[in-house]
Design goal:
This protein has 13 helices and 12 strands. It has 400 residues and is an alpha/beta fold. It has a 7-stranded mixed beta sheet, with helices on both faces. 48% of the residues are buried.
Length: 400
């Protein structure tokens, strides 16, 4: 009898974490490595958020809480959804979890059975398909190439939906591409979903506050109220508030689904960290003006990297509307030879070459279901990004 479950063989370890780990190992061994794989802001958690956590510790808020979030945090989340998205939820429609990944995991485990299908536009965040597979269901991948600015068309969505479709997982702005859907584009997607009332929507809005050039964020349940009763709107503290390590994700959705998520959580992690929840109350309720300053810094970095990459023959890098990633198409490098005579057969070979030859760690597009390409996180200093672009240019220049 096998010791490990069938489910564990359906999934792979996170490729983005693997790249980060490899970069850290090389650095520890004394190599000069620029790590552009990690999907987290380099900014520190705001001081007023840290002070709220310290105050919570001193006040003894270190005990178990309600399994899916404190009343104070649920109230702050409800206020956030109303303020930012025009969505009204009751306390029984809010779930708080140990990160956005945990929110998505709970929702999929609570709702999916073998035979169910989940539509996922690609390139996608690496964990979406594996969570679906772990739940025993089938990911249905919709390829969206650079020629379409990495966005799914309504026609593609309509063609992907079958009677077995249970969910659409929809991420805007996107990890890994930074592509964000305009209100008009969301309206067209929503029109398809209205025609398929058996399909639920998981709207992953984690990068909501990181947008550029006057882009106006909207979410599907906001654009089409008819979708409200079958949409789980997911967000969290990680990206906008630079709180990746605090591990707080949350969502608003129909009360029966929220209750099912709480049931799963009651038999797995129980409540999220009480101190992290107190800090997130402060983050959501506090002064949001720091987001403007940080977005301005991110925009400078985005423009620097897009210009640098597009100056390199063989790379094509669309300008993203949001998040802190670029996703250059590297089709022009496939088939070329390294100085050692090795043929670059795919984007994994390209990223390995960049790391080995110039110490630049990026993530291959295959990890996100969109090849040939690679993801760069520009959540680091201007100086490091400038140096990374120079190194990539040198590496490409040496190809035969």
């Amino acid at each position: 009898m096998p010791f490990f479950s069938i489910a564990i063989d359906r999934i792979q370890p996170s490729p983005t974490l693997a790249v980060t780990r490899r970069a850290l190992e090389l650095k520890a061994a004394g190599h000069d490595v620029i790590g552009l794989g990690a999907g987290e802001p380099d900014f520190d958690t705001p001081d007023f958020v840290k002070e709220a956590a310290i105050a919570a510790i001193r006040a003894g808020q270190t005990k178990y809480t309600a399994v899916d979030g404190t009343p104070e945090l649920k109230d702050a989340i409800r206020a956030k959804f109303l303020r930012d998205n025009g969505l009204t939820y009751g306390a029984d429609q809010i779930t708080v979890n140990s990160g956005g990944k945990h929110t998505i995991f709970n929702a999929m485990i609570a709702t999916l059975d073998p035979g169910d299908e989940v539509v996922i536009p690609a390139p996608y965040w690496v964990s979406y398909p594996d969570i679906v597979l772990l739940a025993g269901a089938t990911p249905v991948i919709v390829p969206c190439g650079s020629e379409a600015a990495y966005k799914m068309t309504p026609e593609q969505l309509d063609a992907a939906i079958t009677p077995q479709t249970k969910w659409l997982i929809f991420n805007s702005p996107s990890n890994p591409t930074g592509a964000a859907y305009t209100r008009a584009e969301l309206r067209a997607i929503a029109d398809v979903l209205v025609r398929h009332p058996h399909v639920w929507i998981l709207a992953d809005d984690m990068y909501e506050h990181i947008v550029y050039d006057g882009f106006e964020f909207a979410t599907l349940a906001q654009v089409e109220p008819a979708l409200y009763e079958r949409t789980l709107t997911v967000n969290g503290a990680s990206k906008a508030y630079a709180m990746t390590g605090w591990r707080i994700g949350f969502a608003g959705g129909p009360a029966p689904l929220i209750k099912a998520i709480a049931k799963i959580q009651s038999q797995s992690t129980s409540n999220p960290c009480s101190i992290s929840m107190a800090a997130t109350v402060a983050a959501l309720n506090g002064d949001q003006s720091f987001l403007i300053e940080r977005n301005a810094a991110f925009k400078v970095r985005r423009d620097l990297v897009v210009a640098g990459l597009n100056a390199i023959p063989g790379l094509h890098c669309p300008t993203p509307e949001g998040a802190f990633y670029v996703y250059p198409d590297c089709a022009g490098l496939i088939g070329r030879k390294t100085p050692e005579g090795k043929v670059l057969t795919d984007d994994e070979a390209v990223t390995a070459y960049l790391l080995d030859s110039e110490g630049v760690a990026v993530v291959q597009g295959a990890a996100f279901g969109g090849s040939p390409a690679f993801r760069i996180s520009y959540a680091t200093s201007d100086a490091l990004l400038t140096e990374a672009c120079k190194r990539i240019a040198r590496a490409v220049d040496r190809l035969g």
